[in-house]
Design goal:
alpha/beta, 38% helix, Pyruvate-ferredoxin Oxidoreductase, domain 3, 7 strands, 193 residues, 6 helices
Length: 193
């Protein structure tokens, strides 16, 4: 039995897959967990497929490799599932969270996903456009991840994330508020079968 929890984020360059993995790591670290967050990409351009990873544990982590058997896969752009094996290495009981307009059952059927994998969907792009004004689905997907897994305390995560956003966007309160609203909405709007 493994003593750590692993997340693999799939996105396109510019969607914030790296940023959200770092936000997750910061929030987990604030709870006293051991955490890793790292991207995997080369000279890709905006829109090219990218991956980011998180590894979370109650003990020090000595593994330093990509996440091969994730407990959770978060897909920031459903179209990636047509060309990238986003489910590679997923174990029985794994969780898939997809940014899409589709219902979980439609995603399961379209991609022939094994019944042993739990499928969740949320329209994170719509939420991001309405709350932030840009199609950056990363923070809404963060909210969905926390809801689905229960791995972090939601309120503590919000407080920590708001602190981090205030440092990065000190002169843009609308960006901070929009991201916090988008996290809350996705937390409420993510659905399962």
């Amino acid at each position: 039995m493994k003593d750590h929890f692993e997340i693999r984020w799939h996105g396109r360059g510019g969607q914030g897959a790296k940023t959200v993995a770092l936000l997750f790591a910061d929030s987990a670290l604030a709870t006293g967990k051991f955490i890793q967050a790292f991207p995997e990409y080369g000279p890709e351009r905006m829109g090219a497929p990218v991956q980011s990873f998180n590894r979370l544990s109650d003990r020090e982590i000595f593994i330093h490799s990509p996440v091969k058997n994730p407990d959770v896969v978060v897909v920031l752009d459903q179209s990636l599932m047509d060309t990238v094996d986003t489910l590679a290495g997923m174990m029985s009981g794994g969780i898939l969270i997809v940014n899409t307009k589709k219902k979980p059952k439609e995603i399961r059927e379209k991609y022939k996903i094994d019944d042993k994998i739990k499928v969740f969907t949320v329209n994170a792009s719509k939420i991001a456009l309405e709350e932030i004004g840009v199609n950056k689905p990363n923070t809404p997907m963060f909210g969905a991840l926390v809801k689905v897994t229960g791995i972090l305390d939601f309120e503590k995560m919000l407080v920590d994330t708001e602190k981090k956003l205030k440092l990065k966007f000190a002169n843009k309160p609308e960006v901070i508020e929009g991201n916090i609203r988008s996290i809350k909405r996705a937390y409420e709007e993510v659905v399962s079968e």
